[in-house]
C-alpha cells in the first residue's frame, strides 16, 4: 500500500530515486548489433582476459592505430560518458551481442601504451541474455543474487554457461581474434570488448519526462492520478443511480471490475490471458463516453490498441476516436482532430435525450430484475432436487412389502 507523502519535496525525492533505478537498470542491459563492432563496441583491444579471471586492477595495452582512433573519438565526442569492459560475449541467432559480465574502467595515455584501470573491484552481471532466453523476472532476480554472492569468477561463468546450456568443460586462455559471425544457434564467444555506456533511447525519454515532472507544482498535479496516489484526495464517486451500460457481455467478476473502475479515481485490474480484460476495458470506455467523458487508452503495443479501436468504431455511430501511436497513425491525427471538431458542430442533441436515457436505464433495471428472479428460481430448483434426492434415498431403504402401491 502506498504511503501518502507529506510534501511535494517528498514526491520529487521519490522521482529522483526512480530515475537512479532506471539508470542502473539501463546499465545492466547493454546489447549491440554484431555489425557495430568498431563503431559502438570494440572487440580487438584486448588479447588476453585479465581483469576478471586474474583479478588485475590495471591492464597495459599497446597503443596501435586502432586503439589510438578509439581514444581520440572518445576524447572528441564522448568524454563525459562512462567506458566499460565486458567479457565474455553472448550472441543470439539474430546477431545481437551482449557482454555477460562488465565493469566500468578509465584509461590513461602513456607514450607507447594505454593503461586501463577498473573503477570497481566488483563486476556487474548483464541480465539481457536471461531475458532473451525467456527467464521470467523472478527467476532473473534469483540468478542475479546467486551470481553476485559467488566470489570466484570462474564459478560465476560456469553457472551462466550451465544455465544457457553451453559447454562447461571448454577452457579459455587467449581471446578469440576472429570476426564475429552469426550462427543459427546462440554462441558464447571468448572475446572481451570495450564500449562507451549511455542511456538507451527509451530510458532516456522516460528520464526526461520524469525530470520535467519534478518541476511541476503540487497545484498543477491536483486532479491527476498522481495526486490520488500520493496525497489525500476526494474520490469522485459515480452516483448510485447511474447503472453501468453493458455494451459488451460481462460475467459477474468483469462487471464488478467495470463498476469499481468508473467509481474510483484509480483501479488496477489484473488477470491472465483469456480472462476478458479487453471486454472490461471496452465497457469502461463505453461507459465513460456515455457519461460525456474523454478517454485516453494506451498500451505497450499497437496490436492491443488496434483491437480496442476496431471494436469501439463498430459500436459508435460517428468516428469519435483519434488513433495515435505509430508514425503512420500520427500523420493522420491532425486531420482526425479537425474532423472531430467539424462533427461536434454538426451534431444536434435530441430534445428527447433525457427521456431516451431514462428509458434505457429502466430497461437495464428490468433486465437486472429478471436476472434476480432467474437466480432465485435456479436456487429454488436446486433445493427441490436436493429434497427429492433425500426422498428417493429414504424410499430405497423401506422394504418393498411396506411400500404403498
Number of contiguous helices: 13
Strand proportion, as a percent range, falls in: 5-15%
- Over all CA atoms, what is the radius of gyration? 32 Å
- DSSP helix fraction: 40-55%
User: Are there runs of 5+ residues with pLDDT below 50, and where?
Assistant: 347-351
> How many extended strands?
9
Largest sheet: 9 strands, antiparallel
Distance between the termini: 69 Å
Note the run of SSEs as H and E.
HEEEHEEEEHHHEEHHHHHHHH
Which descriptor suits the 3D outline?
Answer: elongated
Q: Helix- and strand-based class?
A: alpha+beta
Topology overview:
Elements lengths: L7 H20 L4 E2 L7 E2 L15 E5 L2 H13 L5 E9 L4 E14 L3 E6 L5 E2 L2 H5 L4 H13 L3 H11 L23 E3 L3 E4 L4 H14 L3 H4 L3 H6 L21 H12 L13 H14 L11 H14 L11 H20 L6 H45 L8
Antiparallel strand pairs: 1-5, 2-9, 3-6, 4-5, 4-8, 4-9, 5-6, 5-7
